[in-house]
Design goal:
Shape: globular
Number of domains: 1
Order of helices and strands: EEEEHEEEEEEEE
Distance between the termini: 56 Å
Largest sheet: 7 strands, antiparallel
Number of helices: 1
Length: 157
Amino acid sequence: MTAVQTSYTELPAAGAPGQEYDCAFTDKVSWAADEVIPFGAYVVESREGGCELPDSSGEITSNKGGIALIDPTIASGVGYQIGDTVTVLRKGRAFALSDETLAKGDTLFVRHTAGAGGSQKGAFRNDADTATAATPTGVSIFKGGAANLVVLELLGN
């Protein structure tokens, strides 16, 4: 006999890092992953024509970038492996990976150096620690929320 479901959640999860927020106009590109990339992280175009997590402030402010979108066919369920084809949102709205709670109007920074406590490169934050993060161009908070529930709007770069 199969188990009977006796409980359910009233509301579904608000979203997950890398999930598109709505069906508004988007611009996406496909790049090969040059390293392991979690869903919802900010990635930049690499010199090899693929994508990677940013390693310096110059990569964030000068390179083409975007948010690595969720791909339900990826076996790990959490991100891309080296060589996987990454769908990168360059223009549109999506849930993004963030280190902290962000509010509409906050200045955004993207982490380029992993910090203490397991901070993730490519994650967004509002802390102006310019030694480990930089402000990307054309990215703003569309809808604030708790860590990993923030919705960002990308205007294309």
